[in-house]
## 1
Amino acid sequence: MFVIKNIFEKLGVFIEDNTIPILLITFLLVIISFQGAQYIGMASGTDTFVDKNSQLYQNYDHLYQNLFGTESIVIMIEGTDVTNPELLKAMDRAYESTVNIPGVIQVNSPSSIIKDANYEMTGRSEIPDDGEVIDEIISSSVPAYYLPDETHAIMSVVVEATTSDDTKEEILRETRTSVEMADFPGDYNVIVTGDPAFMVEMNEAMNSSMGTLLMISILLMVVVLYLVFKHVRWRLLPLPIVILGIIFTFGAMGYLDIPMTMVSMSAFPVLIGLGIDYAIQFHNRIEEELEHGTSDEQAVINTIKHTGPAVLIALIITALGFFSLFTSTVPMIQDFGKLLMIGIVMCFLASLFVGVTVLYGFHKISEKNILSKIGLKKQSSKKKVSVMEQSEHEPDFLEKALKGISGFSMKHSVLVIAIAGSLCVGGLYADTLVSIQTDTQTFVPQDLPALIDLTHMGEILGGEDQLNLIIKTDDNTDPELLEWIDEFSQHEVGGRSHIYGSNSIIDLIKAQNGGEIPESSAEVAALYEQIPDAQKERYLNGNSILLVNLEIGNAMSELGLMGIGDLSDIVEDDILWMAPPPGAEVTITGNSVVFVEVIGALTSGRTMMTLLGIILVFAGLLVIYRDLLKALTPVITMIMVVGWSGGLMYYTGLEYTPMTATLGALILGVGSEYAILMMERYFEEKDKGADPEQAMEEASVKIGKAIVTSGATTVFGFSALIASPFSITSNFGLITVIDVFLALLATFVIFPPVIVTLDKFKEKRRAHAAISRKSKLIDTRESNTIPEVITT
C-alpha cells in the first residue's frame, strides 16, 4: 500500500504541474468520443441473446434463418365486409405497390389470388365486380389465413429474416406509404403490424427511453448534490465530471462495436450513479485538505495520494464484482458487463485528472477574485491556526447521526451481527423461492402501439408461434422419408393439444399428386420440378435439408417459455419414439426454442454468478492488501446485503428477470466500494493513534458524509430507471435502489462491529504471539545460561 501511495503522490505532483495540458487533452478526447459515438448501433435480434458460436445459434441462424427464415410485415384490414369489391381493389393497389419495394421477396394478398382465379375463368386479370363470383372464388381458392372471417382480411409483405434492421425499417416505411396511397374505403381500419414492425418501434422506444432516462438521472443528481453535498464549494461540479466520463464511455462503445440493447441502455444511469461517487470522494477530500490549512499545491497532492489508492481499490473490486457478468452465455449481459467495466474506468480517470484539475483551478481563481478575498480573510485566518489551538467545528445532524449509529452498533456488536446474520440466512433461502418472469412480451411497454397491434393480430389469427424441425438427409426425394414426415406431422397435430397444425413440402406434393405421396424417388423429383421455386424453397434447401413447421398458435402467452420448453421436449421424445429413416437427422429449433434456452441461462445462472463475484472480490482484496482481515470484512458485509435482498424480493412479491438476475454481481460491485472506502479511512485514523472504536467513529464522521452523498446520488441515479417504460428496466431500477440502500445500511450498521471485532481479535492474537515469542526467547536464553553456571 505504501508503494501505491508513493505512485499516486508522484501522480499528484504531475497533475498539479500540468493543469493546462490535461484540460487540452480532455477537450481533444471529447471530440474523439463524439466521433466514436456515431458508430453505436441498436441491436435487438437473436444474436443479442445467443452466442454466435453456440450450437443453439448455429441451429437457429444457419440452419433455419439463413436457409428458410422469413419475416412478414402484416397488413390487417378490419371492416363490415372484407369481400367488398371496392376494398379488394384497394388491396390490389396496395399489392402492386408493395411488391416492387426493394428487399421484398413476396407479397401475399387475397386480392392477387382472386385476380389469378378470375383470369383462369374469364381471361381478365382483375377483381370481379360481382359479389357472388368473388364469394365462389374465395370458397374454392383463398386460404382461410388471408380471410379468417367476414370482417378481417390479411396481406403479408415477406422479407428475408437476415435482412438488416435498417432495410426492414425502410421496407416498413415504404409499406405504410403504399397503404396510404392505396386509398382504402374510409369505413375500414387498416393496421400495419407483424414482428418487423414491432421490432422497429421497440428500437425507437429504446432509443428515446435512453435519452429520457439520462435526463431524469441528471436532474435527480442536481437535486441530491444540492441538498446533501452542501458542505463543499461548487457542489454540482461532480455532475459534469461524471457526464464527461459517460461521454468517454459512449465513444469507447462506438469504437469497440458494442451495440445498444434492451439491457445495455440501462448501464448509463447506473454509471452516473456509480461514477459520480469517484468525483465526490476526490471533491470531498480536497475541500477537507484546504479547510485544514494545507497549501493549494499540497492539497492536490494529498488528495490524490490518499484518495486515489482508496478509490482505485474500490474500482478494482467493483470491476471484479462485475466480472462475473462475463460468465453469462447471453451476449447482451456480456455487453452490459463491458459497458460497466469501461464506464467506471472512464469515470475514475475523469475524476482523477479532470475533476481534481478543475477544482484546483476554481480554487485558484476564487483566491484571486477580489470580492472573494474579502470574504476569505477570516476563513484563512482560521485555517492557519495551529492544531493545538484549532477548535473543532460544530458537528451537524448527519455527522451526529452517523457517529451515533456506528457507536450503537459497536456497543451492541453481538446482537447486531446475530440479527443481521439471521436475516441473511433466511433471505438466502427465500431467494430460492423467488419466481422468475419469462414472458418476454411483459418486458416492453404494454401501451406500445406496435405491441397492441401485434397482440390484436394474434387474437384474430390465433398466433404464429412455431416449432421448426430441420431434417438433414442424403436424399430429399426419398419416399420413405416423406412418408415419415407425413405420419409424424399427423401424429403431433392429432396427439398434442398445443400443436394445431403443420406445413411442409408434403402439402405441396399431395396438392400436385391427388393427395398421395409417390412411391419412387424419380416421381418425387418430377413433382419437385413442377412446383414453383418460390413455394418449394420455403421447405427445401438443395438435396439435403427439409423444413417442417409445427404450428403452436399463441404458445408464448398461453404456455409461457417454460411450457414451450416442455412441449419441445415432448416433440423430441416423439422423434426418438417414431424415429426417422436411417440417414435422416432431425433438429428442433425456432424462435421460441431459442428464448427458452436464453431465459434459462439468464435466470438459473444467477447463483453461480453471485458466488463467483464473491470469490473474485475476496481474492482481489487478498491480493491487494495481503491481509485476511481487510479481504474478509467487506465481503462479509456484502454477503449480508445479498441475503437481505433475496428476502425482500420474496416477501414483496418481486420477480427475477434477465436483468435482475445480474443483481448479485451488481450489489457486490457497488456495495463493496462503500465498505472499502470506510475501511481505508478506519486504518488511516488508526495510524494516527486512535483505538479501534475511536478510529471507527472518526471514519464514520469524516468519510461517512461523502459515502452518504455517494450512496444518495447512486440511489437517485438508479431511481431514474424506475421511470423507464420498459418493465424489465423499471423493475431492475426499483430492486437496485433497494439494494443500494441496503448496502449503505450495512456499511454503517454491520461494517463497524465486524471490523472492530475482527481487528481486536487480530490484535489480541498478535499480542499473544508476541508474548509467546518473548517467553520462548527468555526460555532459550535461560537454557543457554544454565550449563555455564554448572561449569563454573
Note: The CA atoms of residues 93 and 182 lie 5 Å apart.
## 2
Amino acid sequence: MKTNIKYLPILLGATLAVGFALGGLLNSSNENYFSATSTSKTKLNKLIDFIDNEYVDEVNTDSIVDITVDNILGQLDPHSVYVPPSEQAQVAENMKGDFVGIGVNFYMYKDSLAIIKPVENGPSAKAGIKAGDRILYAGKTKLYGRKLSSDSLFSSLKGEQGSVVELTIYRKSEQKKIKVKIKRDVIPLKSVDVAVLLDQNTGYIKINRFAETTFEEFKIGLTKLKKEGAKSLVIDLRDNGGGYMDEAIEIADELLKDKQLIVFTKSKKGNVKKTYATKKGEFENGNVFVLINENSASASEILAGAIQDNDRGTIVGRRSFGKGLVQREMDFNDGSAVRLTVARYYTPTGRSIQKSYSKGNEEYFKESESRFEKGELYEKDSIKVVDSLKFKTPKGKIVYGGGGIVPDIFIPIEVEHGDVNVVYLMQSGIVGNFVFEQLDQDRSVFKGLPYVDFVSKMNASNLYFSQFQKKLYKNGLEINLTNSKAIVKRYLMAEFARQLYGETSYYEIVLKEDAMVKAVLKGKK
C-alpha cells in the first residue's frame, strides 16, 4: 500500500503527541479516593457483581471495569487518563530514569534480536558484546524466529540487580556462536540527550522529557558547559511532551534570581500554590535561549513560560502545544493507575496557556494537526492570539494566554529543515533501522575510521542517499528525496555517527544546519 505524502506530517506528528496525556505530573498519591459511599458508586459496584454472578455467559468483568473507567475519564479533560497494568510499569520505569538490565540498544531485524550498540560502560559493553551481535538465547529462552513482543524480550533481558544471565550470541563479523555471562545492573534512561558547546561561549542542552533524574542530569551538563567556557545557554525543549512538573521548576530555579515567581497552580477549591526561585541558582546572569515547537508541552511550557514572563531569556521557535493542566497519579491495587487533573497552572504573569478542549478530546488533539492547514507553522502572522488574554511582563513585553507559548523569535518549519514531510521522515525510526542494516552488511568499511575522515567520506558519497531512496520506494513510501538531498544526507550521516561514535556526534552534525540554533547564534553577534 502506498503512503500519501500529504498525510505524513500528521501521522508522524500524532505519534509525538502520545506522551502529552502523561505530562505535567505532580507527585503520585496512593490515597484511596475510591471507596463506594454514594448511591451512584454503590450502583456501579452492584452492577459489576450482578454481571459477575448472574449473567448467562462468562464475562471478564475486569475488562468491563477498564472500559467504564475509560468512559468516565473521557467525559473530563484530554489529560485525565487511565493507565492499565500492562502499561503502567513501563511508563513508571520511563519516568524513573533507570532500570535494571544488561544495557543494550537493540532492533528486531528480520527474526532476530540484533544489537545496535551496547550502552557505554554498561554490563554488556564490559562483557564484550558488540554492535551487530545477535542474541539467540537468554538462558534457555529462545529469542529468535519467534516474533516475540517487546515486553517478552525485555522481560528476558531484565532482572534483579546483580543477577546473572548467560547469553548465546551469534557474532556475524566472525561467523561464530559464543556464550557470555552478564551481571545485570542499573541502566540509566537519559532524559538529557546531550550537553555541548555550539561555539566558544554558548552551551546547548537537549532535554527529551522531564523524568525523576532530569534536574540532576541538567546540573551535570550545566556544570560541564560552564567549565568549558559557556556564558550563554540554549535549552532545547522541542518535541518534549513534558513529565514531572517539579523537575522543570528546579531547572527554572537555576536560571532565575531569588524570589522570582516560577509558576502557580490553582485547584478546584481555589487553593493557590505559588513557587518562587531561591538563592541557589547556578546560571542567573548569562543569556538564556529556549527552543520550542508545536510538540513542546506541559512541563516544557512551564519552563519556557517562567523564562519568558520574567524577561529572563528569549523563546525561539513555534507556538507550543498548549497544556496547562496538572495531573496527580493515583494507583489501584491491580497495578493500574489513573492520572487525574487536579489543578491548572499559570505562568508568572498570570496567564493560562491551556488551549480549549470544549469540542472533545479528538478535536483537541487534532488542533496541533490543523496548524499545518492554517499555515501557522509557516507564517508568524497566522498565529491567532486573543487580545482579551493579553498580559505584560515586568519590562512591558506583551505575552498571550489561551493556547501555548508564543515564541519571541518565530522560526517557520520549512526554513528550519526544508520539506516538512522529509523532515518528519528523517526524525523517525526508519532512519535508525536503515543505518543499522547498512552497517550490518559490512562494518569493516568504518572500522578504525577517525571521525574527521568519516565526515569527509560521508560528504563525498551519495551511496547511502541512493540506498535510502530505494528503501522508501520498496516500503511503499512515494517520497522523492531529490530536492531534499542535503537534508537527507545530513540526517543519514548524523545517524551513522550516532551508531558509530555516540550521541554527541549526532548532535554536532545536525545542529550545524539547525535554523533555530543559527538564529540564536546570529542574534548573539
Note: The first strand starts at residue 81 and ends at 83.
